Amino acid sequence: MNMNAALNVPNSLMQSRWVIPPAEQDAVARIVQRYNLPEMVAHLLSVRKIPPEDVESFLYPTLKDHFPDPFSLKSMPELATYMAEAITTGRKIGVFGDFDVDGATSTAILVRFFRHLGLDVPFYIPDRLKEGYGPNIEAFKSLKEQGVEIILICDCGVTSFDVIAQGRALGLELVVLDHHESEDSLPDANYVIDPKRKDDDSGLDMLAACGVVFLTCVAMNAKLREAGFYKAQNITEPPLKDWLDIVALGTVCDMVPLTGPNRLFVRLGLEHMDKRENPGIQALCDVAKVTGPLSTYHLGFALGPRINAGSRVHQADLGAKLLSTDDAEEAKNIAWTLNDCNDKRKDIQAEMLDQAIAMVGSQGLDQRPVIIVGDESWHPGLSGLVAGRLKEKYGKPAVAVTYAPGPDQALEGRGSGRSVPGVNMGAAFIEARNAGLLVKGGGHAMAAGFTVQPDQLEAFSAFLIAHVEKQLAGQEAVAETLIDGIVSVRGATIPFVKMLQDHVGPFGQGHPEPLFVLPGVRLQQVDIVGADHVRCTITDWEGGPRLKAVAFRAKDTPLGEALLKQGQNQPFHIAGYFKLDTWNDQERVEMHIQDAAFAIDQNKSERASA
Hints:
The protein has 610 residues and is of the alpha/beta class. The protein is built from 22 helices and 18 strands. 48% of the residues are buried.
C-alpha cells in the first residue's frame, strides 16, 4: 500500500479535505539525533513548528525556567502595588466572576488567595439566564452593600464601558482581569489587566482569565513580600503552586491555545490534580466516576461540563463555591447538585439540537456562509453548546439565538457563536455592536456571544452573513482536517502512544491531540455498540497485529454507514486518535476514529496494470 496515498483525500466520508503539513526534514533529523526521539515524534514536533533548539523546553517545561513574568503585563506593576497597599491597610475587597468555568476558577483562585491572607472576600457570580454575560450595576450595588470598596472583575469587563462608568459613579474602585478581545479604548476602570489590550506587549495573549488572575496573585504576593507583610502578620506565603490544578481546569475548559505558559500551567496542574488535594475536584471526580490519572479530556468533557451546568439552571455560583471550599462534605453536596444539573442540561440540549438540525434542513440554512438559528422556547443557557454542535456537523460558523427577559423585563435575544479557522466571531460581534445592531457583543475568535433586541435580529443576521463572507474573501468555507502523520497498525505501539501522551501532550486548543492516518487498512468485526457507536478491528492490509477502534456517535453518519456496509475487501484510510486502554490490568492501544476515506484496492489496481 502506497503510504502517501492518504495524503490525497480531497473529500472524505465526513466531507473534509485532508491536509498534512510538510515537515522540515533537516529539522526532523536534528531532533531525532539530538534528543533520541522516534522519527514520527520528531516529524510531529516539526509539523507543529517546534524548532530543534526549543524541543527540550517544549517536552519538559519547568516553573523555574519557563514561568512567565507577571510584571510584563501592561499595568501589572501598578496594580500589584495598589493591591498590596489595599490589603495592608485592610480595605474591603470583593470579586465579580463570570458564570463559566474560567470565571469560576478565576474567582476560586482569588478567594483562596485572600482567605490565606485572613481576608473575608465576598464574590458575585451573575445568573446566566437573568443577568446575562458581563458585570452589571445591580451586582456592584450588592457588593457595595456588603462593605466592598474594591471589586476585581474576572473573565469579563474589558468592553463593559457603561457599567464600569456606573460603578465608578457609585464610588467603587474597579479592577478588570480579563482576556477577551479589547477595543482601541478601555473602560474607565482603575486598572485593566488584559493581555489582549492593544498596548500590551507581554506576548501572553494565549492566557485564559484564570491564568491572568493567577499571575496577578503572583504579582500581589511579590509586592506583599517586598513590603514585609508576611513577617508582620506572622503567616506563610500563599501556596500558589497548589492552585495550578484550578488554573489547569479553567485553561482547558475555556479552550484557549495550549501553548507557552498555558502548556506549563496545564501540565503541572494535571500532575497536582492527581493528588486530589482540592476537595471540590475530588468530589467532581467521584460523581463523574473519573479514576486514575487525569487528562485534558477529563477536564474538558467530565469536570468542566458539570461546573458549567450550574449556571445553565439558575445556580451560577456553585462552581466557584465548589473550587474554593476546603470542606469535603460541602464539596460532595455541591458536586452531586452539579451532577444533577448536568443531567438536566443533557436532556434539554438534545431536544434543542434536534430542533435546530430540523430548522437547518427545512430552511436550507447550511447553504449560507454562517448558520443562524433561534427559537423563543429554547433554554438561554445552552445556545453555545448547540452552536458548537452545529459547527461540528456542518463545518461552518454557527450561531444559536435564545430569548430571555432583559433588565426592563422585555424579551431580548441571547446568542452564542462558534466559529471555524479563518472566521473571527468575536471581531464580527464587536463590529456589529459598534454598528448599533447589538446591545452587547464580543468574545474570542472561535467562540463569542451577544445580546440583541428582537427587532434588530434580521439586520444583525444580514450584517453577520456579509461580515463572514468578507472574512472568507468570497471563498466557501471548506472543512479541512490536518493530519499529523501516517502510521501503520504495526507502528501504533504502547511506547509510541505513551511518548505522545506523557511528553508531547497535554493537548488542547492550539496544540490539538495528534490525528494519525492508518493507510489502506482492512476492517473486521464491524458492529454497533451502545446506542450509536460503531466499533471494529483494524489490521494492515497484509495482516499482522490487530487494533481495536471505535467511532463514537457515528451510526447515522456517512462515516458510520460506510464502515458498517463495506466488507473486508474494501481498503480504508482511517483517521483517528490513539488512546491507551487498560483492561484486566493490561494496557493496549486503541483508536478513536474521526474520519475515513475509501482507498484503492491494491490487488485490483495491480491486476489492471498487468
